[in-house]
Each structure stands twice: as structure tokens, then as C-alpha cells.
Design a protein that fits this description.
The protein has about 600 residues and is α/β, with parallel strands linked by helices. The protein is about 35% helix and about 25% strand. The chain binds 2-deoxy-2-amino glucitol-6-phosphate (AGP).
């Protein structure tokens, strides 16, 4: 959470560039925004609110200087106020810092610094960093040494960028457990939390590792915390700037849903990589998926696949619960970590704990992210950058990799069916108008239920998650058979129940559950095969999908109308589906 950017240009004004770059990171946090430039005096504009609101009020691009730093915040320590917005400065205003992460021992450091006379202006953990750097520079250190010394005193996670008018023309960056990349342009350099931020300026990137610092001053040097130079590889990124634009759609989320057929097609080109990884991994007796949120729902589909098609016992553990529940890993267990960002703190911590006890595989979308560097094996989803906070195209891409993995491990017949998924999705997307109309009729309800059995159960959970995160309507996903064990008490006249029932062995039993909710007055929204007359008859509203999509392959296609439904309900309610309140795309805190 939080996004940081820094740039040092050959000439020209840094502030408009910083503003453009930090806009591309707004998915990481939108509680406040701030920019500091140096010419060499440090000048800062910052306030609480989304970038457009703050920009309208402060004209953020109007700052002098060809270098600077910028930040979007997802508040952890301190309310989302102007005082707590980054950049933060030292007492003299000569050192400015942006930070993503959490400094765990900030209270004791702050107390010590206050006793030495430092004046703090915010409630944030971050503010100790500029004051510590100030203290060490006052003792005679240069910016680089003072930053390294300050960081050695701090516990916790950070990606930071620092500028100081005492050392004009220099930016110092550093990372530990929070992402930071270096963009290498023609005589100009960038720092950013994520690649999409800088794609308009360069596609050449260095991935910093934990404990590394970078010094930008017309040249580029990467060091460890002791100042020893570290040689780094420059990677070329094949994502284009256009991929991180809305491309004519009203929102990133809608564009990303419409990109799902191509995301699946592109991910299917990873087949050789999947075969290679399966060969490297060797014999596996048990699978353990670990993930959060939408990635957890993709993992649940994996459980149904591995157990029903290959007979391999499979656990699925929420990453935040991993340390309390994963006792049975061994060298014949394959622990699979699924993460769009590859930076989710809970998932990374679980991966680190599992690495010495099991074979580990990360399935990740963001190139070069932490998970890709820490797992023993890596497979990429080829969804391209996903900017909307709600995961959509990356979910179906994660599913695609999981299906390919199952195919490579013993169910090759899946591959033919996977090849047809993009075409089935394209057909589902054509139904958007009727889903928009449906959304208009259920945008003012307070509760929504999603039910499904077998392969449709994870789809019900994911449908409910999408709805609640972008519409703020209470949505619950249930295994259809569970309703009578409690949730049925919540069903009342007119409560929408989305019944997901693809053709397959669970169909008739799901239909009985549909009858149960109908008998209690629910408004049933059936999602099934277009030729499913029995479901159509039971349902008040019906979303028909290609009859050739059976239950096994259904998670990839049946989620499409549910994503569209949530999107249109959100728009209908006047919300911004790309930036749901209280959430951020990349969750780098536990
Ligand atoms: C879903 O729409 C959310 N963005 C969220 O649940 C997300 O899937 C979760 O935070 C995990 O993120 P990751 O895949 O980047 O690890």
C-alpha cells in the first residue's frame, strides 16, 4: 500500500512528470497525495484526498526543479490528513522523504529524537526517517551515509526516496520488504513502487533487493547498507504505457474485464514454462495453496481440480493464517503461492516460512516482484498491468495457470477445453447490456447472496467479494448446501440470490437449493447454460452462458457476468469501482 515515485531529469520540470507517474500508482492508495521538488530548495505540495481533488486545489505540477519525489498514501499510522500526507521533512525542511511500509519501532525512535529537540508535525511512523537523517547529517555524514545509518536504526518494512537541499542533484532510495524499482532512461532516472508508474518514460528497469540502496545523481549506483557497490542487471519490460491506460473505457475495471479473453490467450502461451516447472518439481504427494482474497478463490478452484482430476490431496490456506495452521509441509509437498502483485505481505511471509520445508511455486502477474525472487519456482500470468483495485483479468489468468498445471501433472485433456475459454468469454461479454439493465434493478438492495456447489462454490465466493468491495453492498458467498445450516434465516422477500449452476453433477442439487430460497421469497438470479430451461423457470432473472461450458471449466467463464454485474451496480450507485474505499491494490502490511 502507498506508492512512491522519484525522478531526476536531464532538464525540464520534474513536478508534471512526478504527477503523471504517481497517478499510475493511485491504485496503491488514495488517502492523500504529495510532491516535493528540489531546485535545490525543497518545495512541497500535499493534502488529503484523491489526486484529482488535491490537484484541482493545489496545482501539483506547479513546482520548480528537475528532480523530486512523490507519494500516494494508504493510511496506517495517523488519519488521512494533510499533516500526515507525505513527503515528510526534518526540522529545517531541508530533507524530504516518501515512504511505503511500516516502521515498527518508530515510537521509541521518535521519543529519543524529541528528547534531543526534534520537532514532529505528524502522527506518522515515517517522520522519524527525515529527522534521523537530519541528525546524522548534522554529525557530518553525507546524505547517503546518513540515510544508511538511519535505516540501520529502524525495524520494519520500507521503500523510501530521499532528497535534500544540502546535497542538490541527488536522490537516495532504499528498500526492505516493500517494493522499489529503478527506471533507467536516457540520462534520467526514476524510482517507483511498481513498473506501470514509469512506463511512459522508460521500459528499462532494475529490481532492487532487500537491503539495497540506490543513489541517483546523473548517474546510478546500487549499494548494500555498508556502501559496497552491487552489480545489478537491467531488465527490459514488454508492458507498454498503453496497457496502463483506460483505452476509451470509463474505468480500468471495465477495460480489464473486457481484456479477459486476451489475458487467457496470452497466459496459455506459457504452456512450455508450465511443463518445464512440472518437470523440475518432480514427484508431489500433496499440494498446499496459500493466498489472499481473489487469489485465495483461484486457489480453491485449484483444490477441486487437483483432488477431483488427479486425486492429489490439496489444502488451501489463507496466507494470513498460514503460520497458525500449516503444520504438515514436507519435501514432497508442493506449496503454491498465488499473488497478482507478488508483494502481498501475508503471502510473502508464508512463502518465506515454507521455503525451507516444502517445494515452493509462485504464480504471479507482476514481473520481478518479490515473490518471483523468493520462490523456488515461478510461473507468470500474462494479464498485463491491472490497475483497478478489484482483481478481474488477473483472476482468470491465475485460474488458467492452475488449469495448465493440472493438465501438465496428469490431465492433458484439459488443454483442448482451455483453448476454447477465450471464445466462451467473448460470448459472455456480449451480454453486457442485459447485465447493465439487471444491475439497475438491484442497486439499492442491502444484501446479496451468491450460491454454488462444487466448482461453482469458489465462483460464488468471488462473485460476493467483487460485489462487496466495489458496491459496498453486503454480499455473501455460500456453498449452496450450507444455506439450510444457518444463512437461510437471512433470506427474505426480494433478497437477491445469485444461483450459479453450470451443467454437471451438482446441477440438480443446486436447483433444489434454488427452490428453497424461492420458497422464502428470494429474488433468484440464475446463472447457467443458456439452454437450462429448469433454472430459467425457477429464476426471476437469468444470465445464460454457452451450453458447452461444463462445471469443470465454468470458474473461468461464469465469473465474467458476475464481475460485470458488480461493476454496473457500482456505477449505478455513483461509486468509483477502480478505487473502492479503504482498500488498496497491493497490500504490503500484515
Ligand atoms: C480482490 O479484488 C482484491 N484486490 C484482493 O482480494 C486481492 O486479491 C488480495 O489482496 C490479494 O492480492 P495479491 O493477489 O496481489 O496477492
Amino acid at each position: 500500500m502507498c506508492g512512491i515515485v522519484a525522478c531526476i531529469l536531464k532538464d525540464g520540470s520534474a513536478a508534471p512528470v512526478l504527477l503523471e507517474c504517481v497517478r499510475r500508482l493511485e491504485y496503491r492508495g488514495y488517502d492523500s497525495v504529495g510532491i516535493a521538488t528540489s531546485d535545490p530548495m525543497i518545495r512541497i505540495k500535499k493534502d488529503s484526498g484523491k489526486i484529482d481533488e488535491v490537484d484541482a486545489e493545489l496545482d501539483l505540477a506547479d513546482l520548480p526543479g528537475s528532480m523530486g519525489i512523490a507519494h500516494v498514501r494508504w493510511a496506517t499510522h495517523g488519519l488521512p490528513t494533510a499533516e500526515n500526507a507525505h513527503p515528510h521533512t526534518d526540522c529545517s525542511g531541508e530533507i524530504a522523504v516518501v515512504h511505503n511500509g511500516i516502521i515498527e519501532n518508530y515510537l521509541e525512535v521518535k521519543e529519543e529524537l524529541e528528547s534531543e529537540g526534534h520537532i514532529f508535525r505528524s502522527e506518522t511512523d515515517t517522520e522519524v526517517i527525515p529527522h534521523l537523517i537530519e541528525k546524522y547529517m548534522d554529525e557530518g555524514m553525507d546524505l547517503e551515509a546518513a540515510t544508511a545509518t538511519a535505516l540501520r536504526k529502524l525495524r520494519g518494512a520500507y521503500a523510501i526516496a530521499v532528497v535534500s537541499s544540502r546535497e542538490p542533484g541527488r536522490i537516495v532510495g532504499a528498500r526492505k520488504e516493500s517494493p522499489l524499482i529503478v527506471g533507467v532512461g536516457e540520462g534520467e532516472y526514476f524510482l517507483a513502487s511498481d513498473v506501470p508508474a514509469i512506463l511512459n518514460h522508460t521500459s528499462r528497469v532494475i529490481y532492487l533487493d532487500d537491503g539495497e540502496m540506490v543513489i541517483l545523481d546523473g548517474d546510478l549506483r546500487v549499494t548494500d547498507m555498508e556502501g559496497n557497490t552491487v552489480e545489478k542487471e537491467i531488465h527490459s519490460i514488454d508492458w507498454s504505457a498503453d496497457m496502463a491506460e483506460k483505452g476509451g473505457y470509463d474505468h480500468f475495471m471495465l477495460k480489464e474485464i473486457h481484456e479477459e479473453p486476451s489475458a487467457v490467450r496470452d497466459t496459455l502461451t506459457e504452456w512450455d514454462e508450465v511443463l518445464g516447472v512440472v518437470e523440475e518439481i518432480g514427484e508431489v504427494e500433496r499440494i498446499c495453496f496459500v493466498a489472499c482474497g481473489t487469489s485465495y478463490h483461484a486457489s480453491l478452484v485449484g483444490k477441486y481440480l487437483f483432488e477431483s482430476l488427479l486425486g492429489i490431496p490439496t489444502d488451501v490456506i489463507l496466507a494470513s493464517e498460514f503460520r497458525y495452521s500449516a503444520g504438515a509441509l514436507n519435501d514432497r509437498t508442493l506449496a503454491i503461492f498465488i499473488s497478482q502483485s507478488g508483494e502481498t505481505a501475508d503471502t510473502l511471509n508464508a512463502l518465506r516460512a515454507a521455503n525451507s520445508r516444502a517445494k515452493t511455486l509462485a504464480i504471479v502477474n507482476v514481473l520481478g516482484s518479490s515473490a518471483t525472487r523468493e520462490a523456488q519456482h515461478v510461473l507468470y500470468t500474462r494479464a498485463g498491468p491491472e490497475i483497478g483495485v478489484a482483481a478481474t483479468k488477473t483472476y482468470v489468468s491465475q485460474l488458467t495457470v492452475i488449469y495448465m498445471l493440472v493438465a501438465a501433472m496428469g490431465a492433458p485433456e484439459l488443454m483442448d477445453r482451455l483453448g476454447r475459454v477465450p471464445e466462451f468469454m467473448e460470448r459472455a461479454l456480449k451480454d453486457e447490456d442485459s447485465i447493465r439493465e439487471l444491475a439497475a434493478t438491484c442497486s439499492d438492495v442491502s444484501d446479496f447472496f451468491f450460491i454454488g456447489r462444487g466448482f461453482a462454490y469458489p465462483t460464488a465466493l468471488e462473485g460476493a467479494l467483487k460485489l462487496k468491495e466495489i458496491t459496498y453492498i453486503h454480499g455473501e458467498g455460500y456453498a449452496a448446501g450450507e444455506l439450510k445450516h444457518g444463512p437461510l434465516a437471512l433470506i427474505d422477500n426480494g433478497v437477491p440470490v445469485v444461483a450459479i449452476s453450470p451443467p454437471g453433477p451438482c446441477h440438480d442439487k443446486t436447483l433444489s437449493n434454488v427452490e428453497e430460497v424461492r420458497a422464502r421469497g428470494a429474488r433468484v438470479i440464475g446463472v447457467g447454460s443458456i439452454s437450462d430451461e429448469s433454472l430459467r423457470k425457477e429464476a426471476d432473472d437469468f444470465i445464460g452462458l454457452d451450453p458447452e461450458v461444463d462445471d469443470v471449466i465454468s470458474p473461468l467463464i461464469y465469473i465474467v457476468p458476475l464481475q460485470l454485474l458488480s461493476y454496473h451496480v457500482s456505477v449505478e450507485r455513483g461509486l468509483d469501482p477502480d478505487k473502492p474505499k479503504n482498500l488498496a491494490k497491493c497490500v504490503t502490511v500484515e
